[in-house]
Q: What sequence folds into this?
């Protein structure tokens, strides 16, 4: 029978009666007739069937009334109609075919694998764990999503095979799910959503390390005992008492501040002495900075105009040295130090007979023109001084009152190391000149002095005292003769200057107030070797030439400067300088150059090899009316001269190149050096003079 | 009798005279020094019988004021050798028989 396979069970008749009670009558009628139709149509077709006219198909079975009323029962069972009812299986045990009673009646129509997982099962738990990790990333997205998702969230967990939102909104379910998972960790369907992840660029890491310096530490140790404490207190109290005594009005506080202050003061005084050296250096640097241009001139300036002036030279003024307390005194002596060529000594006193006061001995350095290096005040005016050639800390000084003294620059005090007194043979008149000599046979230092009392005395430094020896007595008419021949005691001449020969040690010259120059010997005390009638007035200075053994120069207040050869009685050269000549000095670098200073404030520099008759430089260095120049000295190595005047000033000058000419080299010859040249120079000059002398005389 | 009486008097005198705070050694700056000394004196006077409490008070105040890790020793008889941060040491006597040493070292 072509009955469609339907699981739906319904009894044809029965159902008709239940479903449509209203249309029972008509339905029942039709149903009975149209069995086929009733099966086909179903329940909802009552209206259709009512409106329709009954149409009998032509091939319908003709049934009798009785047959139509017959109830035919149909029973629907769950048995599978297609299942065979007589399955026979072969049983190996019985070795026959046996029918199987129980036949499997189930027919499978459709199989669909589901993916629901029970939430308490093992797999679900595993999934939850996995989901939990993924959630933490996803929850961030979840919060950003809008609240509308909630509605869909409730729908989505339901398994729907073909969900509409699947394609477009894959993110939403993702986030929605994860939001739910936040509250209740729900196992999510792995097919329904997908994770999307992305990684932004992480900046690379870098280590930075820093270590600060720990604060400095130091150790300290002490002991705290009762006796220590007691001692400390006692000490403190003592200090306090002392302070109270010192400053009576001081408010005594019970604190440690006082002890601290006392300590401070002590340390301060110590510090001052430490700074003398530093302050000295600083003073010098400041001086040099102040007088920087002068220092530059001193070192480097060479007067270019000398090239144009054929024979003349100039003196460039450099530093001026003055000392406040020496303003009233005049410079009576100048001497350069041989060892430290920037140091020179200045003796200050007074030439004025009536006005005699105290004197001073000052030492200046060219490095610090502002203030003297050493200051020694003296009771009587200094008339002369000399610095020992080898031991340059020893300075011999002659005073106006006739004393001689030796100062040592190494000593701290202001007193001389040795001083002569009336008992020890001091002069009775001013000492005009002192000169160191080479050490005697006992290796004692000794020096000579000449004075107006007519004595030339040798002083020896023996241990702590000065021992004097009269060398010679100067007389008017000659040497002292033995015995008293004449009734008149031989009158004593006054010595005003002397100088020792550079090479011949025992020979020396003495200039007198009368104008005579005597050549004497140390060994002969009674007689002069020679006497020159030099000047008409007192001989102020005699000086041997450094190079030529025979030549010396003398100057006098009679306005003249004379050059002599000691073998000849008459002077080689005579220069009239128009004013009283205070001092004359040979230059250490040339045998023919010397300088003279006059009371009219002029310095005259002569170079005999250049000009035999007049000075190559005559320069007014001080104010004419007020100051008189008293002394001049050449520096041993620098081309500098110092000039002292009667107002206590010492001025230094640089000699221009013309004044320091050396002999020019001839073609092909080497430039000769050394004293021999100088000697030869002088000799040449003298020989020219001698011949006419010989001729005339 | 009189001797002991006098002796006691001397002691009392000495205590009176020697009880002012005396700084034995310090390298602290002026302000810090004064403040620390005042603090020590206050602490010692407050806890005259209990060195430990006094030291505790000093140490805690110093820590608060000047930074951590101060060490304080108070006593009448002890010797010590310590390493301290420079400019952070005070060693003083007080009360005639008490010695206080305060230093910082982290």
A:
């Amino acid at each position: 029978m072509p009955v469609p396979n339907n699981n739906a069970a319904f009894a044809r008749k029965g159902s008709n009666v239940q479903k449509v009670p209203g249309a029972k009558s008509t339905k029942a009628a039709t149903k009975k007739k149209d069995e086929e139709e009733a099966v086909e149509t179903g329940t909802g077709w009552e209206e259709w069937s009512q409106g329709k006219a009954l149409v009998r198909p032509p091939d319908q079975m003709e049934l009798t009334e009785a047959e139509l009323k017959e109830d035919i029962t149909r029973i629907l069972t769950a048995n599978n109609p297609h299942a065979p009812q007589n399955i026979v299986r072969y049983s190996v045990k019985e070795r026959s075919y046996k029918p199987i009673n129980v036949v499997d009646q189930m027919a499978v129509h459709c199989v669909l694998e589901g993916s629901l997982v029970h939430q308490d099962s093992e797999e679900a738990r595993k999934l939850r764990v996995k989901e939990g990790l993924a959630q933490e990333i996803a929850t961030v997205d979840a919060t950003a999503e809008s609240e509308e998702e909630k509605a869909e969230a409730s729908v989505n967990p339901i398994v729907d095979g073909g969900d509409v939102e699947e394609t477009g909104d894959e993110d939403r379910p993702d986030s929605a799910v994860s939001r739910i998972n936040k509250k209740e960790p729900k196992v999510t369907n792995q097919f329904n959503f997908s994770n999307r992840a992305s990684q932004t660029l992480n900046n690379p890491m870098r280590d930075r390390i820093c270590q600060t310096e720990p604060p400095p530490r130091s150790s300290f140790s002490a002991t705290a005992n009762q006796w220590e404490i007691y001692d400390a207190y006692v000490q403190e109290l003592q200090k306090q008492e002392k302070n109270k005594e010192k400053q009576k009005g001081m408010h005594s506080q019970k604190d440690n501040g006082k002890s601290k202050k006392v300590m401070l003061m002590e340390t301060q005084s110590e510090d001052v002495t430490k700074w003398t050296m530093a302050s000295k250096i600083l003073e010098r640097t400041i001086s040099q900075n102040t007088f920087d241009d002068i220092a530059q001139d001193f070192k480097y300036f060479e007067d270019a105009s000398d090239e144009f002036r054929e024979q003349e030279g100039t003196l460039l003024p450099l530093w001026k040295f003055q000392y406040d307390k020496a303003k009233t005194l005049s410079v009576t002596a100048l001497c350069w130090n041989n060892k430290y060529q920037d140091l020179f000594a200045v003796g200050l006193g007074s030439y004025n007979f009536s006005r005699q006061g105290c004197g001073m001995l000052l030492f200046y350095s060219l490095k610090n023109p502002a203030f003297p290096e050493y200051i020694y005040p003296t009771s009587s005016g200094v008339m002369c001084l000399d610095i020992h050639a080898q031991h340059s800390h020893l300075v011999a000084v002659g005073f106006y009152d006739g004393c001689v003294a030796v100062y040592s620059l190494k000593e701290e005090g202001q007193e001389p190391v040795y001083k002569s007194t009336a008992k020890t043979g001091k002069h009775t008149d001013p000492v005009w000149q002192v000169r160191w000599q080479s050490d005697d046979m006992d290796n004692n230092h000794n020096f000579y002095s000449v004075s107006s009392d007519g004595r030339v005395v040798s002083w020896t430094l023996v241990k702590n005292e000065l021992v004097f020896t009269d060398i010679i007595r100067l007389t008017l008419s000659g040497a002292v003769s033995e015995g008293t021949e004449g009734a008149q005691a031989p009158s004593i001449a006054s010595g005003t200057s002397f100088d020792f020969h550079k090479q011949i040690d025992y020979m020396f010259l003495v200039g007198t107030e009368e104008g005579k120059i005597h050549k004497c010997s140390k060994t002969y005390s009674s007689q002069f070797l020679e006497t020159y009638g030099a000047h008409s007035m007192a001989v102020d200075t005699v000086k041997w030439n450094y190079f030529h053994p025979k030549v010396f120069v003398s100057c006098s207040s009679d306005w003249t400067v004379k050059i002599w050869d000691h073998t000849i009685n008459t002077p080689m050269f005579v220069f009239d300088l128009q004013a009283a000549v205070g001092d004359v000095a040979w230059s250490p670098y040339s045998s023919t150059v010397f300088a003279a200073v006059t009371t009219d404030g002029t310095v005259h520099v002569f170079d005999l090899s250049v000009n035999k008759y007049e000075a190559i430089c005559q320069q007014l260095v001080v104010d004419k009316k007020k100051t008189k120049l008293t002394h001049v000295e050449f520096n041993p190595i620098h081309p500098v001269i110092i000039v002292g005047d009667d107002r206590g000033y010492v001025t230094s000058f640089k000699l221009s190149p013309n004044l320091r000419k050396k002999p020019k080299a001839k073609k092909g010859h080497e430039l000769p050096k050394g004293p021999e040249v100088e000697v030869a120079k002088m000799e040449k000059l003298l020989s020219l003079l001698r011949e006419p002398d010989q001729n005339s005389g | 009798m009189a001797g002991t009486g006098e002796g006691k008097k001397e002691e009392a005198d000495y205590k009176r005279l020697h009880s002012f705070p005396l700084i034995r050694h310090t390298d602290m700056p002026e302000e810090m020094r004064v403040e620390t000394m005042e603090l020590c004196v206050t602490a010692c006077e407050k806890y005259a019988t209990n060195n430990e409490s006094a030291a505790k008070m000093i140490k805690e105040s110093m820590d608060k004021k000047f930074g951590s890790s101060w060490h304080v020793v108070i006593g009448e008889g002890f010797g010590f050798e310590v390493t301290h941060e420079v400019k952070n040491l005070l060693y003083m006597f007080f009360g005639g028989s008490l010695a206080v040493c305060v230093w910082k070292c982290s």
Q: What stands out?
A: Chain B has one domain: 18-104.
